[in-house]
Design a protein that fits this description.
heterodimer, A: 667 residues, mainly alpha, 2 domains, two-stranded antiparallel sheet, 29 helices, B: 363 residues, alpha/beta, D-Maltodextrin-Binding Protein, domain 2, six-stranded mixed β-sheet, three-stranded antiparallel β-sheet, 14 helices, 13 strands, 47% helix
């Protein structure tokens, strides 16, 4: 009640600031910018905010804030376009949307899926703002209550979602998650910086970034399989299901949406959990809490509503650590803090104490921006959904262009593209042999925090126990830890119970050899990690890869042992290539196009390579006339160049650029 | 086949156009009208170096001849060696690309990290900014410390650290030289996370650089939750360690050392600490032009930064955002560069050995 007494007057003042023409005008500018940046996969809040930072200097503070908030708020809204329509994760917090959003697009229900997603985004954003209004006044002690044991327990809770996303074979799911963790531990160790399995190469030393892994695991396999079929994304090139349908879908699942929005806020509020896991937790929750789960993964609207409700709410939640502690909850929040300093605001406890009206202006601008952004997206969704009707060979080169450009934003070197192709091949194999890719991604996302929190919590607990047993126990088994532990147990139990209920959906087997070779590869990679970890001197950096490598290898070996005993028709030997109606074109021939783009880039740089690639592709594969080829190539190039120059982005250079210096964009 | 031939023709034409464009010689100009200057920061957005560059960028744009656009480009990775390597290997000395480095770029260079492929001696310094560092304690321990500095020597301290080979080397060695038992908990991602660990009561000792201390720890001190312990100090013109001008009331590590041990600090360990403190703090952030930049170009940049610093509104703005620290250009910046990048081999060897014995880090 005391909190209400503080909140209400400040809230009144905030609304008088927000509801002015000037404020809404700048907010709209930010929203439009955010939407334009957000539709590019791989570009998000950081790129967008960096774009406006130079203009903030000397701007009226409230207008500047409005623009920044507008921009940040709508990124998780507009990245849905790429996730649903093209199967490319628009950003790290909408990877789960791809799982059911893209199958819906393929059924010709893109407009419906988008409408449901945007309604969920809108609802999540507003619910998040409502919750924050009260929470930001009383939030400080709550956030401080989440120490390392609590964060570790939350991470373990995240892992419990593997159970729900593993599919029919729990063992395969566990090994997939282990493989994700193993891949994530390549590079410089987080504790003491020992190098792990990096083959002495500086690119691997930095570790693989989530953008690349997300694109490689989800986008590359989808594009390749579409391209092999040569059809449009929407089956039969037909667009069914309207926007109203999408809204009604959301209304039917409004309680799911509300629960996921609260999950999103909670994940955002706690610094250190990272935003990229929120969509998976929401998705896992949707799967666990539904009675019938056969349809998940093949176009269930709940699989779109859950992550989209959560990822918009997360942005609001992320404001809490940013404003209360000056600690950014995400990369874009870090730039946001930089922008606030330019405007003359210093984030931290004094911000909420002394400038509560300004704080509320931020919170409710976020809600308003969500309304504007989701409204605009809804308006455009029917038109943009028509993308799914275009014959794929004419669309594919642009998608290759987009994901190559997105991947390059990771470290801005040619190696980004090499890594994308390598992870893409892994994704193709996982898709072919039906290894659960979501489980793999959860392992990848959570690995580094699982390692760091385990190690840090152990070390602090040791210090506490050395003082007294009571103090140690109090630290390790706080009420929050116990509550989280019970939630985790419930989550595992629900997941396990559900796994038994899944029906077998179209197993195709074609002999034991191919699936076993892939399993052997998984075992070898895990063993390599284990062997490498044994040569590390620093104990802190050694334990995690040794444990992950060891257990994953063990799991893979058990899987192999079972494989030798089972009949070749068993579902464990599922092989997507063995289906009778497999498309005529081979995987490798199709992937070769992408490798061609990579090779030409290595020689002549991205822009020149892309020009040649587009012409070749449209002519040879798309069977387009010269006129059409020219128009499409020029259109694609102009689009990319304009966007890159506005955002001040470079392109991957090649050998040519090494010897001669060329002007932008060839450099 | 016809398609292939035409495609080849088109690509050859494209390459030819591109080559022709390069034939126009890249001359080093000193008027930057309608140009865009790229300021490479080898760290991610929102960190100390990023804030520092974004503070200076508009000022630099206003003072350079022709008023170019100055954009900050973040190339983080490999502990900042990636961006610095990129600058050393790929950038032309035409004045359109500059680099901002920090102590975290200097330390791997000084410690012979194998990832370092840059040479500070090749670069031309045009601005050097100093900063300071302040250690602080929780209220109860801080009160004890203020009464008797030796009373907390038996305490088990926990400190959230980014890694022993980073700037954290300076506080870790300082505490060790005082005889404090500090266990670093490695693996945090920034000093802000270290402060959060302190606020949660999990860590009971911490340090922040000046600007972060002013923004985020001062409120804790005012609320009675934290007590300042000591600063690393500041360098006077003769190269002596004196009190930090931003925090004149807080004793320096040097003073505290004398009080705890009853004698002025000396010896190999102290010399090593001092060398790395100087490399890490008084000469923390510098702006460079690449190898081969003309003297005229260096002077243009130097003058522009000097003019930015001489602006009437500069002292107030910089006090708020950077703290009261020397912002040096010209000859003075050269002196800073020497301090920050040339450490006597004995100190380096001592530190490497200490890292090996104490933290099992092999360099």
């Amino acid at each position: 009640m005391e909190a209400l007494g503080i909140a209400l007057p400040a809230l009144g003042e905030a609304f008088s600031l927000i509801l002015t023409l000037q404020h809404i005008g700048w907010l709209a500018v930010g929203v439009l910018l955010g939407l334009s940046v957000g539709v590019f996969p791989g570009l998000g809040g950081i790129a967008g905010l960096s774009l406006v930072l130079p203009f903030l200097f000397g701007m009226d503070p409230v207008s500047g804030l409005a623009m920044m908030v507008g921009l940040v708020a709508v990124i998780p809204t507009s990245d849905t376009f790429a996730s649903v329509l093209l199967g490319i994760p628009g950003s790290s917090s909408s990877q789960a949307t791809v799982l059911d959003g893209f199958p819906l697009a393929r059924k010709g229900e893109a407009a419906r899926a988008l409408a449901a997603a945007f309604t969920a985004s809108l609802f999540g954003g507003i619910l998040g703002a409502l919750f924050l209004t009260l929470f930001i006044v009383v939030g400080r002690p709550v956030v401080l209550a989440f120490g390392l044991p609590e964060l570790l327990m939350l991470t373990i809770f995240g892992f419990s979602m593997v159970g729900a996303l593993a599919g029919r074979s729990v063992l395969k799911g566990l090994v997939a998650a282990g493989l994700g963790m193993a891949l994530a531990s390549v590079g410089e160790a987080p504790a003491q910086g020992s190098s792990r399995l990096d083959l002495g190469h500086w690119y691997l030393r930095d570790g693989l970034q989530l953008v690349i892994v997300g694109l490689g695991i989800f986008a590359v396999p989808e594009i390749i399989s579409l391209l092999r079929g040569d059809s449009a994304i929407a089956a039969g090139a037909r667009l069914g299901g309207g926007r109203l349908g999408g809204f009604l879908d959301w209304w039917r699942h409004r309680w799911l949406s509300a629960r996921c929005a609260l999950l999103g806020v909670a994940v955002g509020v706690i610094p250190g959990l990272g935003g990229s896991v929120v969509d998976w937790i929401a998705y896992g929750h949707a799967v666990q809490s539904s009675k019938k789960r056969d349809t998940f993964g093949s176009g269930d609207i709940r699989g779109v509503i859950a992550p989209e409700s959560a990822n918009n709410a997360k942005e609001g939640g992320g404001l809490v650590p940013t404003l209360l502690f000056g600690i950014p909850g995400s990369g874009s929040m870090a730039v946001f803090i930089g922008g606030m300093i330019l405007l003359g605001y210093e984030t931290g406890p004094q911000m909420v104490r002394n400038e509560l009206p300004v704080t509320y202006t931020i919170v409710w601008s976020l809600a308003l921006a969500n309304i504007l952004g989701a409204g605009l997206c809804l308006g455009m969704s029917r038109g943009i959904a028509r993308l799914t009707l275009i014959p794929f060979p004419l669309l594919a080169p642009f998608i290759f262009m987009m994901i190559a450009f997105a991947a390059f934003q990771s470290r801005q070197t040619l190696w980004d593209l090499c890594a994308l192709v390598a992870v893409g091949i892994l994704g193709l194999m996982m898709q072919r042999f039906r290894w659960p890719r979501p489980a793999f991604l959860i392992g990848f996302v959570l690995a580094s925090q699982a390692e760091v929190y385990t190690y840090q919590a152990t070390q602090i607990a040791r210090a506490r126990f050395s003082r007294s047993l009571g103090e140690g126990l109090e630290y390790v088994f706080s009420p929050i830890v116990i509550a989280l532990l019970m939630i985790t147990i419930a989550s595992v139990w629900f997941g396990a119970r559900q796994a038994r209920g899944i029906k077998d959906t179209g197993t195709h087997t074609g002999g034991k050899l191919a699936p076993m070779i892939f399993t052997v590869f998984v075992a070898l990679f895990s063993l390599a990690l284990l062997a490498d970890s044994l040569s590390i001197r620093a104990l802190n950096d050694k334990v995690f890869p040794a444990v992950v490598g060891g257990f994953t290898a063990l799991g893979a070996l058990i899987l192999l042992a079972r494989m030798t005993r089972l009949a070749p028709s068993h579902e464990i030997f599922h092989d997507g290539e063995a289906r009778d109606d497999a498309p005529p074109r081979g995987v490798w021939a199709t992937l070769a196009w992408f490798v061609l783009l990579l090779a030409m880039t290595a020689l002549a740089g991205f822009v020149i390579a892309l020009a040649v690639f587009l012409v070749l592709f449209f002519r040879l594969r798309g069977r387009a006339g010269w006129r059409r080829t020219g128009v499409l190539t020029a259109g694609g190039l102009v689009f990319l160049l304009v966007a890159a120059s506005l955002l001040n982005r470079d392109f991957p250079p090649g050998l040519l650029q090494y010897y001669v210096s060329l002007p932008w964009p060839f450099r | 086949m016809k398609t292939l031939a035409t495609t080849l023709a088109v690509s050859v034409a494209l390459v030819a156009v591109a080559l022709a464009a390069t034939l126009t010689p890249a001359h080093a100009q000193t008027n930057f009208q309608n140009e865009t200057i790229e300021w490479i920061i080898p760290f991610s957005e929102g960190g100390g170096s990023d804030k520092w560059a974004r503070f200076y960028a508009p000022l630099l744009a206003a003072e350079l001849p022709g008023n170019p656009t100055v954009v900050v480009r973040n190339i983080p990775g490999a502990g900042s060696t990636k961006g610095a390597n990129h600058f050393a290997q790929r950038v032309k000395p035409d004045g359109l690309t500059i680099l901002g480095t920090s102590g975290s770029t200097q330390f791997p260079y000084l410690l012979d990290d194998p990832r370092v492929e840059y040479e500070y001696r090749d670069w031309n310094v045009v601005l050097a900014s100093a900063t300071g560092g302040i250690a602080y304690l929780p209220k109860d321990l801080g009160d004890k410390w203020n009464q008797d500095k030796t009373s907390i020597l038996g305490e088990n301290f926990i400190y959230g650290s980014q890694g022993a080979t980073r700037l954290d080397l300076v506080p870790l060695l300082a505490w060790e030289l005082l005889g404090l038992k500090v266990d670093p908990v490695f693996g945090i991602k920034g000093r802000g996370d270290g402060r959060l660990m302190f606020e949660r009561g999990e860590a009971n000792i911490d340090y922040q650089t000046s600007s972060a201390y002013l923004a985020n720890v001062t409120p804790l001190v005012e609320a009675g939750q934290a007590v300042p312990m000591m600063t690393w100090g500041s360098l006077d013109n003769a190269g002596n360690i004196v009190r930090d001008p931003t925090f004149p009331d807080i004793p320096t590590f040097k003073e505290v050392y004398a009080e705890v041990h009853g004698r002025e600090p000396s010896g190999a360990a102290w010399e090593a600490w001092k060398a790395f403190f100087i490399a890490g703090f008084p000469a923390q952030k510098m702006v460079f032009l690449p190898e081969g930049a003309s003297a005229e170009l260096v002077k243009t940049y130097s003058d522009a930064f000097a003019a930015a610093i001489a602006r009437p509104e500069f002292p107030e703005a910089s006090r708020k955002r950077l703290g009261i620290y020397p912002q040096a250009t010209g000859q003075k910046a050269e002196t800073f560069k020497k301090l920050g990048t040339e450490v006597n081999p004995a100190a380096t060897a001592w530190i490497k050995n200490w890292l090996m014995e104490r933290y099992n880090v092999e360099l």
